[in-house]
Amino acid sequence: MNRNIRKWFCGGLIHSKIASGPLPPVDVIPRTILGFTLRAPRERCERRRNFQRLFFALLFSLALTPGAQAARITTGQQVLYTFEEGSGSTVTDVSGTGTPLNLTIATPAAVSWVPGGLSINSSAVIASAGSANEVINAVQTSNALTIEAWLIPANTTQSGPARIVSLSQDLYARNFTLGQQQSAFDVRLRSTATSNNGTPSTGTAGLVTTALTHVVYTRDAAGVAMIYINGTEQAGTTISGNLSNWDGGYRLALANELTGDRPWRGELHLVAIFDRALSAADISQNYSAGAN
Fold first, then answer.
1. Rounded to an integer, what distance in angstroms lies between the CA atom of residue 127 and that of residue 258?
2. pTM exceeding 0.85
3. Residue 202, beta-bridge partner list
4. What separation in angstroms does the CA of 164 have from each of 148, 150, 264?
5. Residue 270's closest CA among 216, 211, 233, 219?
6. Cβ(271)–Cβ(163) under 8 Å?
7. Tens digits of per-residue pLDDT, 16-61?
8. Contact 250, 139 (CB under 8 A)
9. pLDDT band at 110 (very low <50, low <70, confident <90, very high)
10. Which residue, among 178, 198, 200, 175, has the nearest Cα to 255 in the 3D structure?
11. Could you count the other beta carbons within 10 Å of the beta carbon of residue 55?
12. What are the phi and psi torsion angles at 173 (to 5°)?
């Protein structure tokens, strides 16, 4: 008899590659799970069948849940902040790349730790102690970058633009800034074809909400720049030139300009910077992986 035969399973027929021989008595029915064979009376079959259906439905549901299976794309990642500290005045770089670029919360009274995030409740200064020179050198070498953030804006009216992630010196000099201009996300990028302030900027239109949002800005070596919101491309342009004119002394700051006069309020749940432009597939995968 072909070893891929049918056998009884709680009153139904299934295929088995490990069973052979005649059918068992109808009152004692074998059940094989992970190589172990159990025997169950017929009256228990319906209950066990229902349990099996529920078990596999749960597995199927988990397989389809965003973040249940996906792993973050990390190739080219230069810094990563996941805001899981829960207390204290240090935001730790957990990227594992080079020397960690940890950030200090100089205004601890302006923030509060929330599960998997940091809530910025009033004007705060969160910045690296020294220059982000390793990030700057890596991005200049590749002539490409990605800025990624999971965040919850406090409102849709803050402006300036309000600085979310900024590698800069003051109001008028920067390498890049991801900001919020009322209901739009706005990115300024300094290149040999833009100003030292990173203008003209690239922005979205009316896409800021007060819900948890995945925001990604990419600019590749050819100058193609895009903004993705929740895994979907929402804005694009070309920023020509190269990044050779970046200032190597600039510090990395979150939720404000270093001068303290462009505050952003809301929650930060993840911030990452890459020395390459993530692809649409990479961004989709990181969106599926979730904020935490």
1. 8
2. no
3. 187
4. 11, 11, 6
5. 216
6. no
7. 343 445 545 544 444 444 444 444 455 555 666 665 665 555 544 5
8. no
9. very high
10. 178
11. 10
12. -140, 125
What is the per-residue burial (b if ≥16 Cβ within 10 Å, else e) of 119-152? bbeeebbbbbeebbbbbbebbbebbbbbbbbbbb
Of the candidates 209, 221, 167, 219, the one whose C-alpha atom is nearest the C-alpha of residue 185 is 209
Block residue for tokens 């990115």 = 187
The DSSP code for 52 is H
Beta strands in the chain (DSSP E): 5-9, 12-16, 28-33, 36-41, 77-81, 90-91, 103-105, 111-114, 117-120, 126-128, 145-153, 162-170, 173-181, 184-189, 202-203, 213-219, 224-229, 232-238, 251-254, 266-274
Mean pLDDT of 5-17: 40
DSSP bridge pairs for 163: 179
The pLDDT assigned to 70 comes to: 78
* pLDDT of amino acid 267: 98
The C-alpha atoms of residue 68 and residue 288 are separated, in whole angstroms, by: 8
Helix (H, G, I), strand (E, B) or coil at 92: coil
Q: In the structure encoding, which two tokens stand for residue 92, read together?
A: 């730790």
The radius of gyration of the chain's CA atoms, rounded to the nearest angstrom, is 26
Q: How many Å apart are CA 122 and CA 222, to the nearest integer?
A: 39
Of 85, 95, 84, 122, residue with least CA distance to 106:
122
Mean pLDDT of 58-70: 49
pLDDT of residue 26: 44
CA pair distance 17, 19, nearest whole angstrom: 6
d(CA 270, CA 223): 25
